[in-house]
Design a protein that fits this description.
The relative contact order is 0.06. The chain contains 3 helices and no strands. The protein is elongated, with a radius of gyration of 17 Å. It has about 70 residues and is mainly α.
Length: about 70
Amino acid sequence: MATRVLSATVDEVLADRLESLAAETSRKKSWFVNQALKEYFDAIDDYETALERKGGASTTLEKARKELGL
């Protein structure tokens, strides 16, 4: 897979947590950023698919929590 360098500004607390996690796991920070973005985009795709199956109607977060018992 081809890669590209990009630059992003993040909150200092997030940057510190990412650096710590990378050091603790011996993984690169970019690996965690890639994983987080993949999960985010997968969630968006799942949400859009669910809306299409439901006919495009959405619900409020509060209503969804109530229906799911959360």
